[in-house]
Amino acid sequence: MKPKQHLEFVKVDLAGGWQQVPGYPPGFSQKILASDLDEKAKRGSRTRLLKIDAGAFTTEPFVHDHWEEVYVVQGDLVVGNDKQGKGGQQCFASTYACRPPGAHHGPFTSRGGCILHEIHYYETSGASHAEDRR
Question: What is the DSSP letter of 8?
């Protein structure tokens, strides 16, 4: 993977240019803002916007081997819905989550649609935070 580009306040088109997220159901699309994430080599990071259309939902929890930070930019996000997209805990814009590697989270839906700002990254030092606290 190529290194991230240097970007200086480029305009982000929120109306168009979204791409279906591989492995996600319809209604989940993304805009990669910057990435050098290499999941096979377990290094790098990715910054993206994730858009969930109203009523779109996943049915299983997610788990990654990298850190994930998520900020709800606009709309609502529902966490913990069932396999029919019902139930769960709803949160709104200006809500934030930070998940360590191995944390199970989701499934997800949105009642009115939302845009999330996500940052995914691997540890850079090789030491876990638990080791740092000793």
Answer: -
Containing H/E element for 45? strand 45-52
What is the distance between the terminal CA atoms of the chain, rounded to a whole angstrom? 35
CATH number at residue 38: 2.60.120.10
Residue 53 lies in a domain: yes
**Using CA atoms, how far apart are residues 58 and 26, in angstroms rounded to an integer?**
9
d(CA 57, CA 79): 10
Question: pLDDT tens digit string along 5-22?
Answer: 899 999 999 999 999 999
Domain count within the chain = 1
- Residue numbers of the domain that contains 28: 21-124
Q: What separation in angstroms does the CA of 133 have from each of 40, 96, 122? A: 28, 24, 19
